[in-house]
Amino acid sequence: MEFLNKEQRRAILKEYNVTTANDINRALKDMFGSLLQEALEAELDTELQYPKNGSIPPDKSNRRNGHTQKTVRSDRGELALSVPRDREGEFEPIIIKKHQKEVSGIEEQILTLYAKGVSVREIQDYLNRLYGVDVSPTLISNVTNRIVPIMHKIIKMDQGSHIIRPGFAYHATSGRTLSGQRSTP
Fold first, then answer.
1. Which residues of 84-108 are buried (b: 16+ CB within 10 A; e: fewer)?
2. Residue 136 parent element (H or E)
3. For 8, 49, 79, 125, which has the most beta carbons within 10 A of its beta carbon?
4. Under a CB-based contact definition with an 8 Å cutoff, are residues 90 and 62 in contact?
């Protein structure tokens, strides 16, 4: 199964003015950095139970409190991220933990999960088995809802190639979940 079709690959090459292997690496690094940033923002949305610039629930006293700059190493080089903070200091990121400096290997896993199309429960199980972290289905849905539009924008996909619904990303060309089971939208 191809993750990108010929036109999509060419669109990326054109957008990033790719002429060398280093240019390809730069483009992948940029895309991955954007995905990680949105995933961190979605984690805080889930923690606070409201989206950025959204209505704050009346029973909640904790609020957003800016960002902290962080640099992490990946297979593609260093990535500069802005980790969101909360006023009460309770936010503990799961995708990139506090003091974590290395994210090598995560890039391919995120892109593979996205390309194959997996259910929320499968992602939950996968993260638990691989990293020993227990994440809620709400967090997974929020992260998916934030990064899918970025993936569409970055690779200029037409909306017909993927069907997205809350909690489930389905790759229309495969029709299968990560475990290989037949899936229907």
1. bbbeeeebebbbbeeeeeebeebbe
2. none
3. 79
4. yes
Closest alpha carbon to 69 in 78, 56, 60, 58? 78
**HSE toward the beta carbon, residue 101, CA cutoff 13 A:** 0
Backbone angles phi, psi at 152, to 5 degrees: -60, -40
Q: Which H helix or E strand runs over 80?
A: strand 77-86
Domain boundaries, the chain: 6-171
Helix/strand/coil for 169: strand
For the residues 133-147, what does the mean pLDDT come to?
A: 78
d(CA 17, CA 27) in angstroms, rounded, equals: 9
Q: Determine the 3-state secondary structure of 85 from DSSP.
A: strand
- pTM exceeding the 0.90 threshold for the entire prediction: no
For 61-109, what is each residue's pLDDT tens digit? 999 999 999 999 988 889 999 999 999 999 999 888 889 898 877 656 6
Structure tokens that stand for 1 in this block: 């199964």
